[in-house]
Amino acid sequence: MGRKGKFMLAGDVGGTKTNVAIYSKERGVYAPLLEATFPSAAYAGLAELLREFLAQTDYQIDRACFGVAGPVVNGRARITNLPWVLDEAQLADELGLESFTLLNDLVAIASGVPSLQPEDLRLIHPGQVQPGGVMAVVAPGTGLGEGYLIWDKRRYRAHASEGGHCDFAPTNALEIELLRYLQARLGRVSYERVCSGLGIPNIYAFLRDSGYAEEPAWLAEQLATAPDPTPVIMKTAQDQEQPCELCRKTLEVFVSILGAEAGNMALRVLATGGVYLGGGVPTHLLDALDSDTFRASFRNKGRLSSLMMQIPVYVILNPKIALLGAAAYGFEL
Prior knowledge:
The strands form three sheets. A six-stranded mixed beta sheet has the order 9-14-13-10-11-12, with helices on both faces. It starts with a strand and ends with a helix. The chain folds into two domains: 3-110 and 321-331, ATPase, nucleotide binding domain (Nucleotidyltransferase, domain 5); 117-317, 3-Layer(aba) Sandwich (Hexokinase, domain 1). 36% of the residues lie in helices and 24% in strands. The chain is α/β, with parallel strands linked by helices. The longest helix is centred in the C-terminal third of the chain and has 25 residues, at 245-269. Strand 5 and strand 6 form a beta hairpin.
């Protein structure tokens, strides 16, 4: 016989790995009863993965809430970089649950922000949080996710946006040349093209091809064989023992653009509750983001610069923010 009481299954589905956990509302989102991580590609679908996980326990699960890397439309989602098509009704039926809710991963990340503890955050721009103020989330990972949270006089509700696909707006002469360089190759240039894991190699290529600095032979060899050039560029940019001016400048330009776009998002939603940087990139660039370059770019909003001085910016340190957020969202359903 299963354990008495109702429990929730929550998860974070990515192209590489899937995090899953069982929660009870009494213990809250920081105390899962059981948790595991699975290699997503090893399974034909999410239902197969979850049946394996649930076979480890006798908790009586009645509902589930999962963040997924991809858009959710009418209860269905196709996972980015994974041949899975997920359907809420089908998953609930296959697993014998009362309900199964799918969330865009940015909504999941945003939903976790109100539950974060001080140790889950690093302050990189001082300010004063206004109680009930709108919170903005800017999440540069492979792409650029953006969202926000609005207080409804009872709790914060998360909303996704596609702000990462807004037109890139240069703020200085070098960025104007970057825009022209990318326009010649891509046509339209969005912030995602210069402010994400996909964007970092674009900045690097521009600086290399424009002759800003010479590309070292050893680095060219590494980049030619790397499955993803972004980690190589970021690591080299922060390497004190083998400095590379080309990578260092790439990182500086990226940080400046991220600061400007974080400030743009703060203005779009009037984020007096703070701006939160999530995604996979910021946690690898903490010292670079906690810098005058980021802060100056964030504040540089002309007549509204004084407003920007009052808005705090944090980097989310908790690597399981999307899992935490899916659980928090599920408890409010």
